[in-house]
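Assemble and predict.
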Amino acid sequence: MTVTADADLRPRVAIPVFPGSNDDRDAELALRRVGADPVRVWHDEPSLPPRTAAVVLPGGFSYGDYLRCGAIARFSPLMRAVAAFADAGGLVLGICNGFQILTEARLLPGTLRPNASLSFVCRDVALRVERTDTALTSRCPSGGKVTIPVKHGEGCWFANDELLAELEAHEQVLLRYEPGENPNGAVADVAGVANRDGNVFGLMPHPEHAVDPLLGSTDGALLLGSLVDAARLSIAALV
Amino acid sequence: MKARVLVRPRAGILDPQGQAVESSLRQLGFAVDEARVGRLVDLELATDDAAEAHAQLERMCEQLLANPLIETYEVALLEES
């Protein structure tokens, strides 16, 4: 059965806000621009808003990055609802600190460590899109490159050889830094990964900061737009 | 019952924090071959049962205090002074 979605339908995207989140408003603005109905939700809410079609965990420094980045946020009441949503096949994207939270919650493989340089990096990076058949990358040009900014001190994605081989075998690496562009020492130049089922995604670059030509690249809209397309289809499938 | 948890970066894992400490110590004139930086957590547990305390500490490390992918941990019960 082919599911078609009304292009005017704005799927609701929940944006959990933790103490120390700081990219939630940019995420809200960017998601609205690409056709979503974004709703910011405080972390101590026990459940996601009705009709949530996707969740975007924003960047920032949840709980002051205490212990390890993302380690405390995963115990928020709202994160239990997000985990249940993901387990049921719901679309979840974590950006930067959101990615760190998803790895700490063990919803995504690997972990994010301090940058090899020990320096905070803040600049545009060129990325290679490894797959365009996923809910996060469907709008990207096939085999294409996108340019999206990073800004983080702890974005060095790490997996041991065994885990990396497993992820490569299942094509779970969706985004890689182009040769010479790796800003943090990430293993195998990994910038973004998906879970095995293909409904949970995480990336260090910030697509929500790359949606306006006034600020440079608009490639972030390709990723967020893909997610919103998939969210719209998931609602259409329920109707 | 007092307990102490030591969390260390796994052997072979790049420890940029340790490297920065190592190079700073060298700049101070100390002959240091390697420094690795971990984390220490002192705890005051409600239980007085050593076996129960050990079991709890193991679970704490697995669930929160350490990230098993990149860190190892050691737990110890401290004698009451």
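The mean pLDDT of chain B is 93.
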